[in-house]
Specification:
alpha+beta, seven-stranded mixed beta sheet, five-stranded parallel beta sheet, binds phenylalanine
Length: 508
């Protein structure tokens, strides 16, 4: 029955389990005494998946050509620095005015420790530093709950944990859990709650130093002035601040997290160097993929001229929504699968400031402020501490919030983002602003998505024409992985594609 469920896609199959063997890098020596030789491969798309395919195939001597429509490699891995220019699909042209040394990661910006992205940083010699994903001193702001000023994470946590602990401890004490727990269990639970919620002897939450201070403790004579009135349980639940706490429990969002020193694009830059720039054609927009039976021909336009690459195999590593628009001979199974996957919106604005007032006035060094405003998340920079200038991410939002900002001019986006930030941080959010740069992935030519939704998951039967090669074309991308919207998905999907391609060449 289990095997049948597997065949229906309802349980892991033996095949799927077999795939979980660790990746073994390809090597030229794999060909020794086989009478076989490395083949020629055309790779469509120079994002992380395409670059990784070229890099890994290159280790075994494959002759790879990468076609990339944009003027830079990296795909959605895009770091914006002063002088960088973009034009979105609405025609908004922008040039970043950021000062030297300042940058924003418009796409991927944080890396969990377990992802292979860090292995590539190690292998490629890309130095990393901590990315602060959670900060007790960052703010929470829920205007719709009646908050008129922001609250520190630490204060919100003290109050939510305090009141939840008090209620559970009292309920336990009154016998509400007698059916579930032994007397010893109950005692241990109450002990835990007293500690977790900083409860007093009567199991009551009365606040404490965890909430923070208006004047911090210092030398003798300065014991510190604790933050004022402790809110009631009812007020704390009404504020809704507790809904932000589970984020940091996520398998992919828990601290510590990392970022490459100097910008996330150090990864595609290092991959590009390792592959060899001569193997990569930028500004090359693919116009047709033809499987001839004995090879693959990819035609593309570059600088107004139409050209073609002929190869033995192809790795198609474009986003599915873009690939679906490219004429091909791969059949309706491939086309239907590509069209089933839908693009999602996300956007960021970088706000460059003349001073790091969030460090000076608010004592916030990195981390994220969570809001119920349409800007959603505000990120403090995890690099350049104590420097002169710095870039805040003034919005990182998704879906309809990202799309409604996209419809504004870059200036209009800045104004709306700043208006939201002023409510939380005060006037300097406007007066210290030097410049801004906004990036909207759904409106970015050649990408048109921040990430994708793959209904049923990447192993659903309808995606088989993408997960198994179709003719001589193999597919790769984060959208074919269980970690969509992470570079890890692109890396592991590319590894899977090159492993299959290499096995096939060795067996041919
Ligand atoms: N990887 C992206 C990020 O960390 C998008 C994402 C968000 C993916 C949340 C999963 C969960 O912002």
């Amino acid at each position: 029955m289990f095997a049948t469920m597997g065949a229906l896609g309802l349980a892991p199959t033996a095949q799927a389990a077999a795939r979980e063997t660790p990746f073994r890098a390809l090597s030229a020596s794999d060909f020794h005494l086989t009478g076989r030789a490395a083949a020629k491969v055309v790779i469509v798309g120079g994002g992380i998946a395409g670059l990784t395919a070229a890099y890994e195939l290159g280790k075994a001597g494959y002759d790879c050509t990468v076609l990339e429509a944009r003027e830079r490699t990296g795909g959605r891995n895009f770091t914006v620095r002063g002088g960088d220019t973009t034009t979105d699909l609405y025609g908004n042209a922008q040039t970043a005015r950021f000062a030297d040394g300042q940058y924003m990661n418009a796409g991927p910006a944080r890396i969990p420790q377990w992802m292979v992205t860090l292995d590539y940083c190690r292998e490629l010699g890309v130095p990393i530093e901590v990315f602060t994903n959670v900060n007790a001193d960052a703010y929470l702001y829920n205007e719709s709950a009646g908050m008129t000023k922001p609250e520190r994470y630490r204060t919100a946590k003290a109050d939510v944990y305090g009141h939840v602990s008090e209620l559970l401890a009292k309920a336990t004490d009154k016998g509400a859990l007698d059916a579930e727990l032994t007397a010893e269990d109950r005692e241990r639970l109450v002990d835990f709650l007293k500690d977790w919620g900083e409860l007093g002897d009567t199991l009551t939450y009365e606040g404490g130093e965890r909430r923070g201070y208006t004047t911090v403790p210092a030398a003798a004579g300065t014991p510190g002035v604790p933050l004022g009135d402790v809110p009631t349980a009812s007020a704390v639940f009404a504020s809704g601040v507790g809904r932000y706490f589970s984020f940091e429990f996520g398998f992919d969002q828990a601290m510590l997290m990392f970022q490459p020193v100097g910008g996330m694009d150090q990864i595609p830059r290092a991959l590009t160097r390792a592959i060899g720039a001569r193997r990569i054609r930028t500004g090359a927009v693919v116009s047709k993929i033809t499987d001839t039976g004995s090879g693959v021909t990819v035609t593309y336009t570059q600088g107004g001229r139409t050209r073609a690459v002929e190869a033995d195999y192809c790795v198609a590593a474009l986003p599915p929504n873009i690939l679906a628009k490219v004429p091909h001979t791969l059949g309706s199974g491939v086309q239907g699968a590509l069209e089933a996957i839908t693009p999602s919106s996300a956007a960021k604005i970088g706000l460059e400031y003349r001073s790091r007032w969030w460090e000076l006035d608010h004592r916030i060094y990195g981390g994220i402020t969570e809001t119920d405003q349409d800007v959603t998340h505000i990120w403090h920079p995890s690099y350049g501490f104590h420097g002169e200038r710095g870039i805040l991410i003034g919005y990182y939002n998704y879906g309809s919030n990202a799309d409604s900002y996209a419809k504004l001019t870059p200036k209009g986006r800045e104004e709306r983002a700043v208006a939201a930030g002023v409510k939380i941080y005060g006037a300097k959010y406007r007066t210290e602003l030097a410049s801004s740069f906004s990036h909207h992935w759904r409106q970015t030519p050649h990408l048109e998505a921040a990430w994708h939704s793959t209904p049923g998951g990447p192993d659903a039967p309808r995606y088989q024409p993408l997960n198994e090669p179709t003719g001589r074309v193999h597919f790769a991308g984060d959208w074919l992985s269980y970690t969509d919207a992470w570079q890890h998905g692109a890396f592991t999907s590319a590894r899977r594609a090159v492993t299959a391609l290499h096995a096939r060449v060795l067996a041919s």
